[in-house]
């Protein structure tokens, strides 16, 4: 599995379905953004796109080619031998009254479970923690303002206890959205932070000894 970050909450996940599948490789994008946020939008072929909520910095599916299957609501899906589950949540800490709903997505492939929290704005309920279950790779917002800040993210990480944590939705060069940077969040975890990885290539066996390891990714543009 290869994971590339385009900035904000947008990742490209290249994965091979289970043995015997008719598909050699599946390309998944999460929360593609438009150019108004100051970054170059994602581009290229996509088989599947997940959209956590219908805001312009998360739903630019038009930038991707080949008419991908768009998953933008809670439920269970099986698309090209990839299992995806959407879990209902909120963009704020007021039951959605301020910024609306948000969908958490679980993506299962190559015996690994990825959890993309979208623009989650609150600590998880016991039911949500149970629904999420075991997580290998957690993609979590840390920039505050519109979703979890550093302290809020730390609490949610404690609820999920993933093997690898990839921060997202924070201030980077060129981004015009008002967000905090990653420094405060990283200071909380210290030596567990692996800095500036341009691309993450993972197999299930690579995760055996990992626990709450943070990977800071550089963007692909």
CATH architecture: 4-Layer Sandwich
Major β-sheet strand ordering = 8-9-10-11-12-13-16-14
Work out the count of structural domains: 1
CATH superfamily: Ribonuclease Z/Hydroxyacylglutathione hydrolase-like
Percentage of helical residues? 10-25%
Gyration radius, in Å: 16 Å
CATH class division? Alpha Beta
Strand percentage lies at: 25-35%
- Taking pLDDT < 50 over at least 5 consecutive residues as the criterion, the unreliable ranges are none
- CATH names the topology as Metallo-beta-lactamase, Chain A
Number of helices: 3
N- and C-termini, Cα separation: 20 Å
Determine the mean pLDDT: 92
Task: Provide a descriptive summary of the structure in words.
The chain contains three helices and 16 strands. With 221 residues, the protein is mostly beta strands. It has a single domain, classed as Metallo-beta-lactamase, Chain A, CATH 3.60.15.10. The strands form three sheets. An eight-stranded mixed β-sheet has the order 8-9-10-11-12-13-16-14, covered by helices on one side. The chain has a six-stranded mixed β-sheet with strand order 7-5-3-2-1-15, with no helix packed on it. Strands 4-6 form a two-stranded parallel ribbon. Strand 11, helix 1 and strand 12 form a beta-alpha-beta unit. Helix 2 crosses helix 3. The chain is globular, with a radius of gyration of 16 Å. The mean pLDDT is 92.
Tell me the layout of helices and strands.
Elements: E1 2-7, E2 10-15, E3 26-30, E4 44-45, E5 48-50, E6 64-65, E7 69-71, E8 75-79, E9 82-90, E10 101-109, E11 112-116, H1 126-132, E12 137-141, H2 150-160, E13 164-168, H3 183-189, E14 193-197, E15 200-201, E16 213-217
Parallel strand pairs: 3-5, 4-6, 5-7, 11-12, 12-13, 13-16, 14-16
Antiparallel strand pairs: 1-2, 1-15, 2-3, 8-9, 9-10, 10-11
Helix pairs in contact: 2-3
């Amino acid at each position: 599995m290869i994971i590339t970050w385009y900035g904000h909450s947008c990742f490209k996940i290249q994965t091979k379905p289970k043995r015997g599948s008719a598909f050699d490789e599946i390309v998944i994008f999460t929360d593609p953004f438009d150019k108004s946020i100051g970054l170059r939008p994602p581009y290229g072929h996509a088989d599947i796109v997940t959209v956590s909520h219908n805001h312009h910095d998360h739903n630019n599916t038009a930038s991707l080619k080949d008419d991908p299957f768009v998953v933008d609501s809670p439920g269970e899906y099986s698309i090209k031998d990839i299992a995806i589950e959407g879990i209902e949540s909120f963009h704020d800490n007021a039951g959605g009254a301020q910024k609306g709903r948000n969908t958490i997505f679980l993506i299962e492939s190559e015996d690994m479970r990825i959890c993309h929290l979208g623009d989650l704005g609150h600590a998880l309920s016991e039911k949500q923690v149970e629904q999420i279950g075991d997580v290998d790779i957690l993609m979590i917002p840390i920039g505050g303002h519109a979703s979890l800040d550093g302290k809020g993210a730390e609490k949610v990480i404690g609820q999920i206890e993933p093997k690898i944590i990839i921060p997202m939705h924070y201030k980077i060069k060129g981004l015009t959205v008002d967000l905090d940077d990653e420094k405060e969040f990283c200071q909380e975890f210290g030596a567990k932070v692996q800095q500036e990885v341009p691309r993450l290539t993972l197999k299930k066996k690579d995760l055996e000894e990992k626990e709450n390891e943070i990977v800071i990714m550089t963007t692909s543009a």
